[in-house]
Write a structure and sequence with these properties.
The chain is α+β, with helices and mostly antiparallel strands. The protein is built from five helices and five strands, in the order ααβαββαββα.
């Protein structure tokens, strides 16, 4: 095997002292400072959004996936049939469902079950949208919300009441309440 010797280039005095590199860095820094000054003077449009005062709501793309929430139908009935598909498909296992039965005196007792407890741990949720895709009754939707905050871990676990509160209503056919089914 042959040994190849690489000849290093000879550096000039200003390259050895990093003077040319220093001036290149200063040139970049001054160009950014000048660009910022022109933005402040009103000559160029702003690029930075000042978050708490300005929101991204208008500029969110259509494909944005936010946080999941449960929705009711137009008659304020819960859509979820507690099939637990969303719980099984959730990659980080952020969804926990405890099924419960509907009382026999209820007019909709033909429906087998409803969720007794439904919790989503928003700290674990990765906002993948698989729960929304797998739901046969369209009971879970991803809302366009990116500011999900809490002061403790307990506040970040959304229970059934909270999920319905933030989810709202969706209009449309729900197989669970279909008279012909």
């Amino acid at each position: 095997m042959a040994i190849i010797t690489v000849q290093r280039p000879k550096l000039a005095w200003h390259e050895k002292a990093f003077i040319s590199t220093l001036f290149k860095g200063l040139k970049i820094t001054l160009s950014h400072a000048l660009r910022t000054f022109l933005q402040i003077a009103g000559k160029k449009p702003k690029v930075t959004m000042e978050y708490p005062e300005q929101k991204w709501d208008d500029q969110l793309p259509d494909y944005y996936r936010g946080a999941p929430a449960l929705v009711t139908d137009e008659h304020e009935r819960e859509r979820c049939v507690s099939c637990q598909l969303c719980e099984f498909i959730c990659p980080p296992k952020a969804i926990t469902i405890t099924p419960g039965e509907i009382p026999s005196d209820d007019p909709w007792a033909k429906v087998e079950k409803r969720p007794k407890e439904f919790e989503i741990d928003m700290i674990r949720c990765i906002y993948c949208g698989m729960c929304e895709e797998v739901c046969p009754e369209q009971a879970i939707f991803l809302r366009k919300d990116y500011a999900i905050t809490g002061l403790s871990r307990k506040e970040m676990v959304h229970d059934k009441k909270r999920l319905y509160e933030i989810g709202g209503q969706r209009v449309g056919l729900v197989n669970k309440w279909n008279e012909l089914k």
